[in-house]
Specification:
- The protein contains eight helices and eleven strands.
- Strands 2-1-3-4-5 form a five-stranded parallel sheet, sandwiched between helices.
- Helix 2 runs parallel beside helix 3.
- It is elongated and about 60 Å long.
- It starts with a strand and ends in a 9-residue tail after the last strand.
Length: about 230
C-alpha cells in the first residue's frame, strides 16, 4: 500500500515514514498543504496521513479540497489537540479517522489497517491463493504450510499481487502502489523483485502462482494457462 504522509515537522515525518516503511508501506512525504494537494493529484495513494497544522494550507482545507476533487482513499488526521470540537471539525472536513499526538506507533498501525479494511480495496486479514497464505496484519507468509521469509519490499509486492488475484497488473500499477515517488520507472527493479518472489514462492512447488503476461505485466493466480511463462 502507498501512503501520502503530510507532516511539516521533519523529525516527526522521518520517524513515521521510517516505521511505516519497515512495515512494508511505500511512503511519500509532503511538507505543506499545497504540496500535499499537488502530490495527490499526480500520484495514486491508498491512504493519506494528514496533520492539521500545516504551512500554506491547513489540514482541514486540504481534506476538504481532496474530497471536493473526488479523492476517495481513507484520510487519517493527526492533531495535537484533543478537544471534541477539533475532532468533529476534522471528521466534518472529510477525514475518516483522527489520532491525537503524541501517539503510540502500534496504535497508528492498527488504525491504518482498520481504515484500509473499510476502504474500497478488499483487504482481508488473511488471504489465501491455492496453498499460499498471507496475513496482512502480521505479514506472515506460508506456502503449503512452510513459512516463507520475505523482505519488507518483497512482502509489499506480494501483498499487492495477492489483493489483485486473477488480475493482470502492469509495471506502472505496481510502481504506483508498491514504490515511492523517487522510483525510476525505467529501471528493472520490479522484474528483479518478481524473480525473487518466484524463487521463494514457486521454486520446488508443483504449481506456479506468479506468471508474466508479455506486454501487459504480471498476474498471481492458481488458474492454469493464464501466463506466457
Amino acid at each position: 500500500m502507498r501512503i501520502l504522509l503530510v507532516e511539516d515537522e521533519s523529525r516527526v515525518a522521518g520517524f513515521i515514514a521510517k516505521g511505516l516503511r519497515e512495515q512494508a508501506y511505500a511512503v511519500d512525504i509532503a511538507r505543506d498543504g499545497g504540496q500535499a494537494l499537488y502530490q495527490a493529484a499526480i500520484n495514486e495513494y491508498d491512504l493519506v496521513i494528514l496533520d492539521i497544522l500545516l504551512p500554506v494550507k491547513d489540514g482541514h482545507t486540504v481534506c476538504r479540497e481532496l474530497r471536493g476533487s473526488g479523492f476517495r482513499a481513507p484520510i487519517l488526521m493527526l492533531t495535537a489537540r484533543d478537544a471534541v470540537d477539533d475532532r468533529v471539525s476534522g471528521l466534518d472536513s472529510g477525514a475518516d479517522d483522527y489520532l491525537t499526538k503524541p501517539f503510540d506507533f502500534k496504535e497508528l498501525l492498527a488504525r491504518l489497517r482498520a481504515l484500509l479494511r473499510r476502504s474500497h480495496v478488499l483487504r482481508p486479514q488473511v488471504a489465501h491463493v491455492a496453498d499460499l497464505t498471507l496475513n496482512t496484519a502480521s505479514h506472515a507468509v506460508a506456502r503449503a504450510g512452510r513459512a516463507v521469509n520475505l523482505t519488507a519490499k518483497e512482502y509489499a509486492l506480494l501483498e499487492f499481487l495477492v489483493l489483485n488475484e486473477d488480475r493482470v497488473v502492469g509495471r506502472e500499477q505496481i510502481a504506483q502502489h508498491v514504490w515511492e515517488e523517487s522510483f525510476d520507472p525505467f529501471s528493472n527493479v520490479i522484474d528483479v523483485y518478481v524473480k525473487r518472489l518466484r524463487d521463494k514462492l514457486d521454486t520446488g512447488f508443483g504449481r506456479r502462482l506468479i506468471h508474466t503476461r508479455r506486454g501487459e505485466g504480471y498476474i498471481l493466480t492458481a488458474r492454469p494457462g493464464v501466463g506466457d511463462d
